[in-house]
Each structure stands twice: as C-alpha cells, then as structure tokens.
Design brief:
174 residues; mainly alpha; globular
C-alpha cells in the first residue's frame, strides 16, 4: 500500500503531537508492583529501626510516615510532584506489606492462612474505598494529592500493623 505524501505528513504530525504530549506529561507515577528504590527502602528501614524494637508499636512506626515523600516534595508542593513522591514512598510500604505477608503466611496453619488472606483482601478493599472517597468528596485537582496521601498513609499503617506479627513470630522462634 502506497501512502501519499500528504498522508505520510499527517501520520508524522500525529506521532509528533503524541511524542510532545508524552514529554509534557513526564514520567509515569510509580505503580503497585514496581520495585522501590533501594535508598528509599533503607530510609524507612533505618527510621523503623530507630523507633525501637521492630514492630513494637503502631504509633512509633507511624513516626516514619513521610520520611521519603516529605524530602522528595521539599518546597515544590505542586500536585504532580507531591503525588509522585507519595507514590514513591508507598512502594516501600507495599514492599514491607508483601515481605511481612509472606513471612506471616509461612508461619501460620492453613486455617489461619485463609483468615490472613481474607483479612488482607478486606483491608485492600477498605483502603481503596476510603482513599477513593477523598477524590469523590473533593473532586478537582486538589483531590489527586489528597487521595495519594491517603493511599500512602493507609499503606504505611498496614505495613506497621503487619510488622507487629512479624516481630511476634521472630520472638516465638527464639
């Protein structure tokens, strides 16, 4: 099939516009399943260690919330930057959840494993409903960073909660 010069020019123009749009959007935000940066993992791990015995209390662990996102955002509090930084920190908390979940699952009996699985699925559903409500309530551009902040906070809380069980398992194995 032979394309006319005008047709080729239009295809090039469409590709050029698409390329410009992708450049303007910038890097895609971190997604669940992406691996967190090693330095971000180290930052939160160090903070959690400084808070006392691993898994000692939820309140102590929450002191580590925003240890990656806040310096990343800095004084540049534009919505896109804040969302990217919050998503970056959330990757670390997701990693802690996944690592803790695997460890806990390996230590449980089959009936307890089923309950843990159900509990986690319920938590994911509740987190999503909760954080999506920020968007539904506020709408507009303000809703995006508020929703990202909610996802980061709720994921951190869950990671800290699961670490309590990890610490107990480690203590029982001594």
């Amino acid at each position: 099939m032979c394309l006319s010069v005008g047709s080729r020019h239009m295809q090039f123009r469409h590709l050029f516009v698409l390329a410009l749009a992708l450049i303007a959007v910038g890097p895609l935000p971190a997604r669940a399943g992406d691996a967190p940066a090693a330095k971000d993992v180290a930052t939160i791990d160090d903070c959690l260690r400084k808070q006392g015995k691993e898994g000692s209390s939820e309140a102590e662990g929450l002191a580590c919330l925003m240890t990656v996102a806040k310096p990343c955002i800095g004084s540049d509090d534009r919505d896109r930057r804040a969302i990217d930084c919050l998503n970056r920190e959330q990757l670390v908390w997701d990693k802690i959840i996944n690592d803790s979940y695997k460890l806990i699952m390996n230590a449980l009996e089959p009936d307890q494993q089923a309950k843990l699985r159900e509990m986690q699925r319920s938590w994911i559903h509740t987190r999503d409903l909760t954080c999506n409500f920020w968007y539904d309530y506020f709408q507009g551009t303000m809703a995006y960073p508020m929703s990202a902040n909610c996802n980061n906070r709720e994921t951190a809380r869950r990671a800290i909660f699961l670490r309590i069980f990890v610490a107990d398992i480690a203590e029982r194995q001594k």
